[in-house]
Amino acid sequence: MSILVAEDITFIKNGRTILDIDHFSLNEGEVTALIGVNGAGKTSLMQILALLQQPTSGRVVFQGKIANKKNLRELRHRMAFVFQQPLLLDMTVRQNIAMGLRIRKLAKQEIEGRVNLWLEKLGISHLADGPVRFLSGGEAQRVSIARALALQPEVLFLDEPFTGLDSPTRGQLLLDIAGLLHGTKIATLFVTHDYAEIPHLAHRLSVLDQGRVIQTGTPEEIYQNPSNQVVVRLLQWIPMKHIS
Ligand SMILES: Nc1ncnc2c1ncn2[C@@H]1O[C@H](COP(=O)(O)OP(=O)(O)OP(=O)(O)O)[C@@H](O)[C@H]1O
């Protein structure tokens, strides 16, 4: 079932068409990876879906509701983000995870329960009362993931969350996130330049080229039947052993 849909989207800047997309959807319980070369429009599409950027034309529909100025805040509160840079505030780990819940005015007990749950799920309970400024890159990213998932979002945006982490840290975090997301109802958009990550996390793959979605399917389908040479060139970097 589609949770978030972009329909008839154009995004035009300085007379240049950056996006031209008829239909793009994120489905309940699915991780959709979005790939494309630098400048293909991935960030622009993510920002439009996340209601952080207004398209030139078209609409974003969240669970049947067309996003507009009136419902923007309510709809944004049902989404969460993890960026390449964890963007943590200079407080304790616990306070960072609690921040979004406080903003949403949840009861103190509920906040405490959720924070403890996600500290545990991300394996960072031992860091809870320390300041975030001493964390390693991998630990900081775990805090940012705990902060996002504690919000119990319906839609999650992962914007190159593993970039900059060393290989073993990245691999473990990738497996842990896959374990946390798979089997939930969250619709996830995962933007990455590291195509080796895709088979571990994504159920679906969309390929963006010059602002257009040129192919969508399971990683296996796309790998076996690339729609054109652009897709072939991109996917040659996905290790075949992971696709079966
Ligand atoms: N607000 C804007 N004003 C002008 N041009 C923009 C704006 N936003 C994006 N662009 C241009 O649109 C194109 C697509 O940018 P975007 O950041 O969405 O691509 P991307 O696929 O995320 O690239 P990367 O992989 O490098 O992050 C780029 O050429 C960029 O310069």
Q: Can you give me a brief rundown of this structure?
A:
The protein is built from 9 helices and 10 strands. The chain has helices spanning 42-49, 72-76, 93-103, 108-121, 137-150, 167-181, 198-201, 219-224, 229-235; strands at residues 2-13, 16-27, 31-35, 57-62, 65-66, 79-82, 155-159, 187-191, 204-209, 212-217. The longest helix has 15 residues, at 167-181.
Written description of the protein model:
34% of the residues lie in helices and 26% in strands. With 244 residues, it is of the alpha/beta class. The chain has two domains: 2-78 and 154-170 and 177-242, Rossmann fold (3-Layer(aba) Sandwich); 90-152, no CATH class. The strands form two sheets. The protein has a six-stranded mixed beta sheet, with helices on both faces. A hairpin with a 2-residue loop joins strand 1 and strand 2 (16-27). Helix 3 (93-103) packs parallel to helix 5 (137-150) and helix 4 crosses helix 5. 40% of the residues are buried. The structure holds adenosine-5'-triphosphate. Residues 13-14, 18, 36, 38-44 line the site of adenosine-5'-triphosphate (ATP). Keywords: ATP-binding, Nucleotide-binding, Transport.
